[in-house]
Each structure stands twice: as C-alpha cells, then as structure tokens.
C-alpha cells in the first residue's frame, strides 16, 4: 500500500510540475488554455471559475496529464479569439510552450537537489569496509579502514570527498564511460596519503548492475565486527555469543570489520568441519569461543550462518552546504544525471547497453516505497532523479513527445514551412507505436525483475 501511495504522490507532483510548465508559458504567450488535466479518461473532479476560464480537472487514469489549448487544428475558433490560438503564435513562442514542460522538470530537480544539499543529512564517513576478495578494488590496493579523501576522473581536478555518498555517482559514471577513477586514500584519521587507480575497463561492462559492481568489489562503509541481537537456538547462541561482543580474530585471522566477519562465517560452509576458534572482547576481557556456524542451502550455494546480527552502525557525519553552494550542487547533479540518462538511451539505441535498463511503473513504485520507508530525504532525492528522467524522456525526438514537436518546429524554422498534415499523421502513428513498444518493454522488465529473472 505504501508503494502505491508513494508512487501516486511522486507521479502527481511530476505531472503537475510538467504540465504547469506548459500552462504558465502558454498563458504568458497569450494562448488561451481550455483545460488543465491531471490524468486521462473520465473526469473525477473539475473546477472552472467562469465559462471563459481554464477548466481544471482530475481524471481517473493518473499516468499522465495534458494542457488543452485553443487551436484551429482541433476545432473551429471564433474570429475574435484567433489571436489566442496556439497555431497562430510565432514559431519561437510555440517552441517555448512545448519546451517549458521538460524545463519545469529540470528546474524541480535543481530545487530539490539544492534543498537536500542545504538541509543535509547524516551520511556514512568515506571509511571503506573490506573490499570483495579478488575484485578490482582489492587488486588496486584498497583495504578495510582506508578513508577516501578525494577523487578525480583521469585528467581532471581532484574533488574533496565528504562522505561515502560522494563516491557513488563518480563510480557509476566511470563504469558507463569505461574510464579511470583515481582515489586519494589515507588511514581513518586522514594520515599517510596515497593514490589508488581504478581502471573500469577491466570490469568488461558498461552496465553499472549488480554483477559489474560485484567485480569492482568496493566495500561499504566500515562497521566494527560487533555481534548484535543473537537469535535463540542458532549457532551464535549455542556458542555463547552475546550482544555487544567484539570479534578480534577467527582461526588466527585478524577480523578488521563486519564485512570480513560475514565473509568468514559464510565461507565455513565451503569446508565444514571443526568449529571455528574465535577470540572476542567482552566488557574489557578477551575470551576464546568455539563457533560452529549453521549451514543453509540456497539454490546451489551453501552458506554459513550464526543466526545473529553482525556489525555495528557505520560512523556518520552531517553533510550540509550553504545556499550558494547548494544551488551549484543542484545544477551540477541535474546536469550530470541528464547527461548520463541521454548516454544510456543512446547506448541502448546502438546496442551498447541492455534494454533491461528501461524501467516501468512497477519498478518505480517499488523504489518510491523503499525511499519513503527510509525517510523524507531519500524520497525527495528519488523524486529529483525521476524528474530528471521525465525531462530527458520528453525531450527525446519521438513523435507524441515534446521532443518530437520541437523537431517539427526545427524543420519549420529551417525550411520556412510547417510539416505537412500527411507527414504529421504518419509520424504520430509511428510515435504511438514506438511508445507502446517502450511501455511494453518497460513493463516486461518490471515483471522479470519482480520474478528475479533479470
């Protein structure tokens, strides 16, 4: 239920902003707006101040909206209102009205990203947990307890890293562009700086999916190897483990963080036998504990478990920015995500990226629900990203989208004459067919994700 509510609220905000962009610029250009509708289909609610005013409606199907303007191509227009018809406006005004919807979505994203940067939030420090054994990060020399101080793309200036969140987007960009990401590392206190080079070409994929990120093998934030809640009758309880125990080593191997501890427990199932010999610290005392993990079978995999929570919360820092810097961050993030979305669309078109990247309403609803559960900050961040995606999507040069209409106006500007009705009709049909294909593919991807088939 939360997923549906969060999805409908997000969709409503994005549609409202997009259509208000068209509406406000149309009014500014002197075009008469007949109807402003959220949703399609049967009208559930309407309001109109006078017979000559704009009618505002809420319709039954919430997957879109529209602004209906006075236009001689859609019906007869009284002679005294011809100057207010959309089709009689100069080319530059018609183009501005069409472009205003996507532009409004980009402006919303800028405002949301800037607001989030100003408000700030507690984010994990950029102190890395254990990298995945054999992954690119481990081969490059990353170790548990390393702190990322700065990063730089090949040939670019160093950027300071305030928290682990600052690392996420540059990693995704470097993977999709198959470029090198340089990291300036130090110990947890910022001493002993050194540089680490991550060449994403070694990953063999431009897709920042789970498999590629697994081959990269970056650890999450460093968490101390502390035992949390212990389930009764599990391996941890049988061994006498208690909440708050700090694990020092297992079978003589020093345990540096929770990720390494989980890996050692899980790996027991590959060669089960005698109990693992743990040393733990409890209330200032170092104690030996023999732990024999339970073995679970998941598909073809055998996994060791102790039936206890593992890992203390990561250390966090409040990251916030003054208004001027926040606005710049909002602009930068909107530009970066717009550029990345365009690149992904382009690569899908030429076959360099998988069509599985397309997502539909089910995936978006799941993401909205998960973000809403985490908190308002995450929900607003998702809303900003969706607004960028909607803006870019509508600017694609496809008939039926704003970008398609802008292509018509480009032709008109270059040739001095509008696209003929014959071509308009056929292009609209082709655009409708393409949109159906995209929607069907996105929905198919949603279903396969739900079924775990991707």
**Average residue-wise pLDDT:** 89
Q: Strand portion, in percent?
A: 15-25%
Number of strands: 16
Structural class label: alpha+beta
Q: H/E element string?
A: HEEHEHEEHEEHEHEEHEEEEEEHHHHH
Classify the helix fraction into a percent range.
40-55%
Largest sheet: 4 strands, antiparallel
GO molecular function, one term: metallopeptidase activity
Family: Belongs to the peptidase M50B family.
Organism: Roseateles subflavus
EC number: 3.4.24.-
List keywords for this structure.
454 residues; alpha+beta; Pdz3 Domain; 4-stranded antiparallel β-sheet; 22% strand
Write up this protein.
With 454 residues, the protein is of the alpha+beta class. The protein has three domains: 90-120 and 321-454, no CATH class; 122-220, Pdz3 Domain (Roll), CATH 2.30.42.10; 227-314, PDZ domain (Pdz3 Domain, Roll). Helix content is 44%, strand content 22%. It has helices spanning 2-28, 91-119, 136-140, 165-176, 210-216, 235-239, 258-267, 323-350, 361-374, 376-395, 402-415, 421-450, and strands spanning 33-47, 55-69, 121-124, 147-153, 159-160, 180-186, 194-199, 227-230, 246-250, 253-254, 276-282, 285-291, 294-298, 301-305, 308-310, 316-319. The strands form six sheets. Strands 5-4-6-7 form a four-stranded antiparallel sheet. Helix 2 crosses helix 8 and helix 2 (91-119) packs antiparallel against helix 10 (376-395). The protein is elongated and about 95 Å long. The chain starts with a helix and ends with a helix. The mean pLDDT is 89. It is found in: Membrane.
